[in-house]
Write a structure and sequence with these properties.
By secondary structure, the chain is of the alpha+beta class. 34% of the residues lie in helices and 29% in strands. The N and C termini lie far apart (40 Å).
Length: 163
């Protein structure tokens, strides 16, 4: 199997895009800023390590798009532009703070099957990570759950508030 960068490059070649720089990376894949050769517009391209994570994130972005969700509690959500099921690549808009993103570790239509002990430990960790902003993050999570999206991978990198 080719690397996430190789697949991102293949995607770009098929759509007149150029990778400008890397925006981020994590356990699920790599995110690149791209520019369109024709109109100069920029987008974010996420190339995944594994198909199940790609499918999760793709399906959640499709849900968000079908419901017309552009922001959640005042935080911008990237908009799905294109995707490629063979290359495991999602193209979306680039967003600035405040934002909610990275749904590869989220669950669609059912919460993760965690024990009470694990959930308590998770919430304690999130309280520490978000500090006084935890109630705001919880409102965002509750809003997502109301449309069937259950985020398990929650941190200040994917629910980011204005500084």
């Amino acid at each position: 199997m080719s690397t996430t960068f190789d697949r991102a490059e293949q995607y770009c070649q098929s759509r007149d895009l150029t990778i400008i720089h890397r925006l981020g990376f994590g356990v699920h894949g790599r995110v690149f800023a791209t520019q369109n050769h024709v109109n100069g517009e920029q987008s974010a391209l996420k190339s995944f390590e594994r198909e199940p994570h790609y499918q999760r994130e793709r399906d959640i972005y499709l849900r968000l798009r079908s419901l017309g969700v552009m922001n959640i509690c005042g935080s911008v959500v990237p908009q799905l532009l294109e995707y490629d099921d063979e290359l495991w690549v999602i193209e979306m808009t680039i967003v600035a703070r405040p934002f909610v993103l990275d749904f590869a570790g989220a669950y669609l239509d059912h919460p993760p099957d965690f024990s009470e002990e694990v959930l308590e430990e998770w919430e304690s960790e999130k309280r520490d990570q978000f500090g006084s902003r935890w109630p705001e993050a919880q409102r965002i999570l509750n809003e997502l759950e109301s449309i069937g999206v259950y985020m398990a991978d929650v941190n200040p990198g994917n629910i980011a508030f204005e500084e």
